[in-house]
Prior knowledge:
- This protein is an alpha/beta fold.
- The chain folds into two domains: 2-184, Rossmann fold (3-Layer(aba) Sandwich); 200-332, no CATH class.
- It has twelve helices and 14 strands.
- It has helices spanning 11-22, 47-56, 66-74, 87-104, 125-135, 154-157, 175-184, 201-213, 219-225, 245-254, 280-292, 324-327, and strands spanning 2-6, 26-33, 40-41, 45-46, 60-64, 109-111, 141-142, 229-234, 237-241, 260-264, 271-276, 302-308, 315-319, 331-332.
- The longest helix is centred in the first third of the chain and has 18 residues, at 87-104.
- The radius of gyration is 24 Å and the shape is elongated.
Amino acid sequence: MKAIALLSGGLDSTLAAKIMIDQGIELEAINFVTVFCTCTERGETCLASQKAVSALGIPLKVFNVSEEYLSVVKSPKHGYGSNMNPCIDCRIFMLKKAKVYMEEVDASFLVTGEVLGQRPMSQRRDAMRLIEKEAGLEGYILRPLSAKFLPVTIPEKEGWVNRERLLAIQGRSRKPQIELADHYGIRDYPCPAGGCLLTDPGFSKRLKDLMLHAPDFSLNDVHLLKMGRHFRLSPGLKLIVGRNEEDNRKIQTFAQKGDILLKVLHHPGPLSLLRGMADGTEMERAASITVRYSKAKDLKSVEVLCRRVKEDSDRSITVSPIADEKIRDWMIGE
Length: 334
């Protein structure tokens, strides 16, 4: 019997997969990558899930669903969690995708590492029922770690899986999973706190600002949220200032036609990106903020190069660094 395991690479999903393998289930893992994942390499490969399947000895299929997933983040039917995490809608979205793949490869059911009561939004009993129903998978999702607290699934009814060998774990304590990992010899698994930028308060503030002022935002806009310091200079104008050389390189990479790049001349400092329509006063303000984070921050008069991306329109302006007490008025999500 073949099943598909949704594998994040975290401890719970790894344990769930291991339990199924021990019952003789032919297992294939799938992983969904989005622009909001924190454990990817170049935004394409989930490092944790790669490590997990190597240890488990099963194949892995990775789907990058970033573009489609933006619609879920912009308008989740079931709302957000404590930050900008649309956990219920996210789960429904991923399970619908998994269902399509399950049917394509002729698998019979899905396996997840969900634990009843572990997450306050998506792993409540009523939320699990809702998610299964809206994903069109009622009875076909097996959660081995909490199975004995949940209704009997079709794989159990049909005898594909032995319910007696499934577990009864619930709540937020990690002790049972850690003990089980020791039993199986599973080591070097990621901590449960990370994984999704949408649960991060600082990132969520930036995303809320973006949704308010540019509701039709793109993947490019989201990538920029992950780097530098962000300033809202006006409703239609935002400045991003690099924190280090890596940020500067990324800002250069994601700059697009119409953006303005600012760089302090003759002194080390950040690369800044100005996106939106800027008048002369706003251009000077952006330059002054850029100077504030450069090695020229203590000088009274500093030259800043302003270059419009993909246009031959370089010019320089001379400004003073902005005062620290003013900069807080424009900063978004420190």
